[in-house]
Write a structure and sequence with these properties.
Radius of gyration of chain A: 20 Å
Oligomer: homodimer
Order of helices and strands of chain A: EHHHEHEHEEHEEEHHHEEHEEH
Number of strands of chain A: 12
Strand order of the largest sheet of chain A: 2-8-7-6-5
CATH topology of the largest domain in chain A: Aspartate Aminotransferase, domain 2
Strand content of chain A: 5-15%
Structural class of chain A: alpha/beta
Distance between the termini of chain A: 45 Å
CATH class of the largest domain in chain A: Alpha Beta
CATH superfamily of the largest domain in chain A: Type I PLP-dependent aspartate aminotransferase-like (Major domain)
Largest sheet of chain A: 5 strands, mixed
Chain lengths: 353, 353
């Protein structure tokens, strides 16, 4: 670090994104991207006229996109906040609702960015252990008065709280904020978004990066009551009011309207996930019951680190975390049928060899 | 605000972007956009293949674009930081190098976002008065040990410090960070970017929103020594590592390489600026010697507020700030020759009427 960096960040450890090696063409099953291209409506939305108008600033209110998302969820534009990816939305949420000196609780095994946000914003984080079977126990949260953030389905386990459990969590304390990070919820089909109409202490965050095949476009959003959204807008207008560019605005608006296309993609991924789970179990893997677009699995006879490395040697990238409690597991993104055949075939070869 | 918002932000007043009324088609001379479309290379860069690959995450290292910008400035990729607009870059800089409890100094009349960042990040801001003639006196900064941020050319005055003055400012204290916000520097042609090779206490920030006709794309960047850039990267990777989307990455890389196209646009804007200055002076305006793509002017017989309102009634948007010291001025973006003819003609009519 330079001598100019504030002491606040002297021990800050940044997030490490999934690797993107360029030495050869890999089958990428390490960052939970969709194997399908975005809706054809996205290509139509980014036409030459739109590009030639890029000399003008985008709409800082992000009205077109907020309206399109609101229609999908049966809420108003004023209930929707849009960020430059859901990381942006989570960052603003932690900054706004915890703040330096504040507190936050989350599971010990979850999305690795939460502890980074806590460090960045000077928030005291309590990491609440998952149960032995890697499920979240909502009972563990009932005494927390600080905001709680839960990835649901959780990453990297893929395990999901039911909507009933989520509602019970919200009801534990209506003066406490619950942030549900539903990045993978389109594959679990039990979103709490509807509950934002009933509860003012709930933020539901989703993304266009997974089920909507737009990781490269950077769009995430929050659904919540108007007051919460106004707070997030105050933060956004104090940091970067033009955070959504004009191409993103149009492309994402077109995407969210093409429900039929994405429903079909989601169904295919769920089908591939369930087939792959069976295949891996047949090979002796312990496979968690993922409701997301990835599978978290461990094998009694194969170190996860070796499996990761062997697959990488064979041109397939999966994710290995090497963290306590989950060091025996690899996380495999659910790709296309062909990709899943290839990865399971190579795993078979590795097990033989 | 909701009951969940951290008390840190109870008095936070967000930035107010230039108005974008939708009631009719205005000639927009209020947000310093370029009147020219982006380079034709930008249209070519955003092709269907690139759009169809949006299911994949963008390169979090932003390598292609950092390399292209570095080549333009004769520095290395490691000397370039890219943000989602220069606001993003300034936000990360204030957050990193001041931080909550830190301090920052800037002119009293300058880009209105600096005080917002100070509030957002809990930084104590000292607003140093411009001289009576609205120029920055570098002597006023010599006793400040905290980071200093100067827009050069300054906004909304358009007045510019010479490169000699900037170097003297840097040399006042090599242990103090100087942030030069050069959003408008392509119209002033005296960038301090070259000085980043010599001084490790300098950050130069530029944008694609003005001279490069890409306000709608959101790209800004910093040039500085490697240590400073690494610090900014630590912040970015702790907040939003994928802040630059795949379309932006390619489009901006194509743009920065098309120097000939943009040099031509810049020359035309400078020509229009100088012609408009003369015309306004002939009408009795006091016109500051702007080196940017806007003109800051006041008239002895016409209130600036009235002028702004009369022009808006006639379908032309300019910016009126209504702030002490500059309440007699309007800021007029330099647009195309036709736009400048139209605005000066309407001002003549208003003066007559």
């Amino acid at each position: 670090m330079s001598k100019f960096l504030s002491n606040l960040y002297s021990s800050l450890e940044a997030y490490t994104p999934g690797e993107q090696p360029k030495d050869k063409a890999y089958i990428k099953l390490n960052t939970n991207e969709s194997p399908f291209p975005p809706s054809p409506e996205v290509v139509k939305a980014i036409n030459d006229d739109v590009i030639n108008d890029l000399n003008l600033y985008p709409d800082p209110e992000v009205s077109m996109l907020r309206t399109a998302i609101a229609e999908r969820f049966g809420v108003n534009k004023e209930n929707i906040f849009v960020g430059n990816g859901s990381d942006d939305v989570i960052a603003f949420s932690v900054m706004a609702f915890c703040g330096r000196g504040g507190r936050l609780a989350c599971p010990d095994i979850t999305y690795g960015f939460y502890p980074v946000y806590a460090q960045l914003f000077g928030v005291e984080l309590t990491e609440v252990p998952l149960k032995e079977d890697f499920t979240v126990s909502i009972d563990h949260y009932k005494n927390f008065e600080c905001p709680v953030i839960i990835a649901n389905p959780n990453a990297p386990t893929g395990l999901m709280l039911s909507l009933t459990e989520v509602e019970a969590l919200i009801n534990q304390n209506l003066d406490r904020l619950v942030i549900m990070d539903e990045a993978y919820m389109d594959f679990g089909k039990a979103s709490a978004a509807e509950l934002t109409k009933k509860y003012s202490n709930l933020i539901v965050i989703q993304t266009f990066s997974k089920s909507r095949s737009l990781a490269g476009l950077r769009v995430g959003f929050a659904v919540a009551n108007e007051e919460i959204i106004r707070d997030l807008e105050t933060m956004r207008f104090s940091f970067n009011p033009y955070n959504i560019n004009s191409l993103t605005l149009r492309a994402a608006s077109a995407a969210i309207k093409d429900k039929a296309y994405y429903d079909d993609c989601i169904d295919k991924i769920i089908e591939n996930r369930e087939e792959t789970k069976i295949t891996l179990k047949e090979m002796g893997f312990k496979v968690l019951d993922s409701k997301s677009n990835f599978i978290f699995a461990s094998h009694p006879d194969l170190s996860a680190k070796n499996l990761y490395e062997e697959l990488k040697n064979r041109g397939i990238l999966v994710r290995y975390f090497g963290k306590e409690r989950i060091k025996d597991f690899v996380r495999i993104t659910v790709g296309s049928k062909e990709q899943m055949q290839k990865v399971t075939e190579e795993i078979k070869n590795i097990l033989k060899g």
